[in-house]
Amino acid sequence: MQIDAVILAGGMARRMGGNDKGLVELAGKPMVQHTIERLRPQVDHIMINANRHHEQYCQFGFDVFSDQDSGYLGPLAGMITAMDNTEANYLLVVPCDCPLLPTDLLARLKATLEQNNADLAVASDGKREQPVVLLLKPQLRQSMKNFLDAGERKIDIWYAQHKYAVAEFSDQPNAFVNVNTPEQKQQLAAEIAQ
Ligand SMILES: Nc1nc2c(ncn2[C@@H]2O[C@H](COP(=O)(O)OP(=O)(O)OP(=O)(O)O)[C@@H](O)[C@H]2O)c(=O)[nH]1
Ligand SMILES: [Mg+2]
User: Fold this and answer.
1) What is the CATH number of the domain that holds 46?
2) Which one of 52, 72, 82, 157 is most buried, counting C-beta atoms within 10 A?
3) 10 a known binding residue?
4) Against a cut of 0.80, is the pTM above it?
């Protein structure tokens, strides 16, 4: 059983003033480095999906891919690029801006997916689903391509077309703290420093 992960860092990060969110420093290291450290013990192989600053992203030692369609079509564009570049049985998808992801993220998503015989499993912090934290079967590629080719972009609408299950992480809601703005970054940096 091979499981690969993709870190989505392909957005425009407008709320971060257009700075590349994955490369923005948090508590002394780039945000994507925090994510890598969380994922590394959990998966066989990591890919980074970025549309800018490839040279910097390559320094982390993993393959870096741009969206095939560079029109900033949203997270699904990054996921489909990853599906084209993996032969894994499952693909774990995470964003570059959730530095405290659970250490048992994959284990719980995989158990949920398999117990429900689902095609994809999305994480929930107990209050809301985290639409870009999920485990999915790369066989869904054609369906995702058809969806994007039809001009559709909304991730939850695509999810709803498949058998999907929700993995609960209500015991660790802070694991999904999401850094979108410089203020959120400062706040988290202060919490980490404590
Ligand atoms: N590959 C790819 N990833 C994207 C795209 N848009 C957003 N993402 C990623 O999806 C995740 C969630 O998106 P947001 O938190 O809205 O990030 P963002 O769009 O860069 O930031 P804002 O411009 O402030 O909304 C992040 O990991 C982004 O990098 C895109 O067009 N392509
Ligand atoms: Mg966005």
Assistant:
1) 3.90.550.10
2) 82
3) yes
4) yes
